[in-house]
Amino acid sequence: MPKQVPPARRNVRGSRTGRPIMALLDLLGRRWTLRIIWELRETALTSRALRTACDEASPTILQTRLTELREAGIVELTDDGYRLTGLGRELTETFTPLHRFAERWSKRAVD
Amino acid sequence: MPKQVPPARRNVRGSRTGRPIMALLDLLGRRWTLRIIWELRETALTSRALRTACDEASPTILQTRLTELREAGIVELTDDGYRLTGLGRELTETFTPLHRFAERWSKRAVD
DNA sequence: GCGTATCGCTACAGTAATTGTAGCAAGGAC
DNA sequence: GTCCTTGCTACAATTACTGTAGCGATACGC
Prior knowledge:
The structure is a homodimer of 111-residue chains.
Chain A lengths: L19 H9 L4 H7 L7 H7 L5 H13 L3 E4 L2 E4 L1 H8 L1 H15 L2
Antiparallel strand pairs in A: 1-2
Chain B binds a DNA duplex (30 and 30 nucleotides) through helix 4.
């Protein structure tokens, strides 16, 4: 009944080439996706704790994103709540430089 | 060729904490933003060439995203078209591991 | 049994974001 | 002049998202 989101391989918006990077950029470019991964980067969170961490984002869209991320093998649901899979943890490693970039960037973007 | 300076827009969705990483995740999490940065990663592109590269995405939204990215100091408009700024190039450095991740990820997403 | 929590998850209507098509004005080449 | 191309915009249609409420299941103490 939830609208099942296509697995990463199928037709992904903005990815008619089938190149994995396009599918990934599309997945990560959906609202709250990056934020969810970020919030799960060091700890598992229950769906409600995750919602709190995400500024009380709508549960509808969080659930949708979590379903997509689970299908993508980036997030899994355990007894401790949602947490990153091994793949997901690999992905967050690319976030660390992103964090440092954000600091440099903010000093310039504020002006 | 640049014609006008767009109105400033400072409020970033999903960033009530003021932490730069949140503002950045929000900016990058808008549709086509990641893709645009990706397409500009090694070459400058005119607005139309960029549109072609982005699977003929709507010029409305591309223009919106380009304006945001210019205000963020990540993209600039030159005589050669749009291209990444120094900051933007720093950002794409975090994309290289992302590319490699996408390859590994695709092999798993097939399941 | 009760009431009261929590969990993951969904319904639904209202609102905001995005799409698709068309077209503008300005500049350069012929 | 006519053709191109450039960056950019208008506008309605469609889709994505938000906000609030609430479901069924599970687990507590009573």
